[in-house]
Structure formats: C-alpha cells, structure tokens
Amino acid sequence: MTTTEIAAEHGVSRQTIHTYRRTGIFPSPVEGEGSTRPRFREDEVAAFFKANPKQPRKKRTFPPKQQGEPMDARKELYAFVMQGKEHSPDISERASEKIDAYRRAVLLDAADKLDQSETLRDLTDDHMHDVNAAANELRRMADEPEASDG
After folding, report:
1. Whether the Cβ atoms of residue 104 and residue 142 lie closer than 8 Å to each other
2. Residues 48, 13 contacting (CB under 8 angstroms)
3. Can you spell out the DSSP letters for 1-51?
4. How far out from the chain centre does Cα 6 lie?
5. What is the pLDDT of residues 103-150, one digit of tens each?
6. Secondary structure, 3-state, 56-98
7. Max Cα–Cα distance, the chain, nearest Å
8. 94, 77 Cβ separation under 8 angstroms
9. Do 51 and 80 form a contact (C-beta atoms < 8 A)?
10. What are 1-35's pLDDT values in tens digits?
C-alpha cells in the first residue's frame, strides 16, 4: 500500500502517516520494484491502526526519532504514554513493564558510569571500595522489582 492508499482506507491524512513514520512507530516500508515511493504491507498497517485507533480531535504527540537509531527506553515509554489509550489492565501491565525496563536501564547506566569514571581512579583504596559497593548496590537495585505503593 502507498501512503495515499493508507490515508484513504484508514481516514487519516498523508501528513499523519508521515508523522507516524518520523517518530518510528509506523511499520517499515517494504522493498518494491519499479517505484521510488514507499510501500507498506497491508496486514502490518491494519495491525498498527487496530492498536492505535484514530481519536477525532485529539492530537497525538510522539517523540522524534532519527532514522536508523534504536529507540531508548525513555523515548519508548514516552511514546507509549502519549498514545492516549484508555485505561485497561493490559495497558497498565505493559506500562509497568516499560517503566521497570527504564528504571533498570537508568540504574545499570549509573553503575557503569561509576565503574568507568576516570576521576575516581585516583581515590584511595578505601574510597574505591565505597565506589565499587555503590555500583554493586545500583546493580542489585536494577535486578529487583520496584516496590509499589498499592
């Protein structure tokens, strides 16, 4: 399908489809012969619009994504939250999983930065022991689920 065909079939503008593509949430185009226009698999497009139904008068905001750049956990969480989906147990569970993944990534990144910091190399052995203990504590926290309030 072309963007024009998708727009007509799903009741959105071509600009909307370009916005979805730019944010990295729309299915990738498939290789086609004889044309330079991007074409998309009909089943993937249908699945996308089923998972992201059109909401009249509600503007969706998606984070920008650079071509070929994998989406990091923070951007993925933001894109998920900004889709304006209604509350359901399935959505809540998926949101919790994404939040936990982001929390884990942040903690592990902090631990790695402690391990790799050049400014810490000149510390005494006692202080380095404390830094190593802090990095290990961050890794331990990353492997534990966060306690919930409720």
Report:
1. yes
2. no
3. --HHHHHHHHT--HHHHHHHHHHT-SPPPB--SS--S-B--HHHHHHHHHH
4. 24
5. 888 888 888 887 777 666 677 777 777 888 888 898 898 888 765 443
6. CCCCCCCCCCCCCCCCCHHHHHHHHHCCCCCCCHHHHHHHHHH
7. 68
8. no
9. no
10. 899 999 999 888 899 888 888 888 899 998 877 77
Tens of pLDDT, residue by residue over 44-53, are 999 998 888 7
In order, the DSSP letters of 87-132 are P-HHHHHHHHHHHHHHHHHHHHHHHHHHHH-GGGTTS-HHHHHHHH
pTM (global) more than 0.85: no
Tokens in use for 124?
Answer: 């005494």
* The amino acid at 23: T
Judged by DSSP in three states, 53 sits in coil
The residue type at 66: Q
Cα torsion 87, 89, 93, 96: sign: positive
Q: Tell me the average pLDDT of the chain.
A: 76
Please provide residue 39's backbone torsions phi and psi, each rounded to the nearest 5 degrees: -125, 150
Separation of first and last alpha carbons in the chain = 46
Q: Are 7 and 16 in contact, with CB atoms under 8 Å apart? A: yes
